[in-house]
C-alpha cells in the first residue's frame, strides 16, 4: 500500500493510486478473489480502474504471464473487447476477448498456443467485471509516462 506521504506527492502530480486486486487466469477460468496486494500510480483519468496480474498463456499475443493489466470497471464492453469475465456459479474469472452472438457469449483466447473458445449461454450467470484497457506497460507508453522520470520525482521527497 502507498504511504500517506507518497499518496500526497502522487496526488500533486495528478496521479491516483490504483489497487492491484489479485490475479486472473488467462486460461481455464479459475478461482477469483479480491485481495488488494498493493497499489500502483496512474494518471487521475484512470480513477475507475483496477489492476490484475495475468496468469497463464491463453492471451500471450497481448499479455505476458505475470504482467499487470489495467481494467476499467465502468466501461460497457463491445464485441471484440478484452474483458474480465466472472462466472459467479463457481466463483471463477478469466481474461478473454469477448464476442457477443445472438444467443451466446464467446470468450476467445489470443494465443500462439491452441486454446479452445469458451461458449456461454447469454442467460448463464456470467458478468463482465472489467474491460481491459491494456498492460501497465502499454498504458505508461500511451500516457507518455517515463518511469525513470517519475521515480526521480518520487526520490526528491
Protein topology:
Blueprint: H1 4-12, E1 15-25, E2 30-31, E3 38-43, E4 49-55, E5 68-72, E6 82-87, E7 92-100, E8 104-108, E9 118-121, E10 126-135, H2 136-142, H3 147-155
Parallel strand pairs: 1-4
Antiparallel strand pairs: 1-3, 2-7, 4-5, 5-10, 6-7, 6-10, 7-8, 8-9
Describe, in plain words, how this protein is organized in 3D.
Residues 20-132 form the Peptidase S24/S26A/S26B/S26C domain. This is S24 family peptidase. Strands 1, 2, 3, 4, 5, 6, 7, 8, 9 and 10 form a 10-stranded mixed beta sheet that branches. Helix content is 16%, strand content 41%. It contains 3 helices and 10 strands, in the order αββββββββββαα. The protein is an alpha+beta fold and 157 residues long. The longest helix has 9 residues, at 4-12. It has one domain (4-155): Ribbon (Umud Fragment, subunit A), CATH 2.10.109.10. The mean pLDDT is 85.
Give a quick summary of the entry:
The protein has 157 residues and is an alpha+beta fold. It is built from three helices and ten strands; from the N terminus they run αββββββββββαα.
Query: In percent terms, what proportion of residues is strand?
Result: 35-45%
CATH 4th-level superfamily: Umud Fragment, subunit A
Roughly how many Å apart are the termini?
18 Å
Q: Which residues sit in consecutive blocks of at least 5 with pLDDT less than 50?
A: none
What is the overall number of helices?
3
Spell out the helices and strands N to C: HEEEEEEEEEEHH
How many strands? 10
How large, in whole angstroms, is the Cα Rg?
A: 17 Å
Q: Mean pLDDT, rounded to whole units?
A: 85
Estimated structural class: alpha+beta
Number of domains: 1
Shape: globular
Any idea what the CATH architecture is?
A: Ribbon
Largest sheet: 10 strands, mixed
Using the coordinates shown, work out and report the CATH topology. Answer: Umud Fragment, subunit A
Helix content: 10-25%
CATH hierarchy, class: Mainly Beta
Organism: Clostridium perfringens
Protein name: S24 family peptidase
Pfam family, one: Peptidase_S24
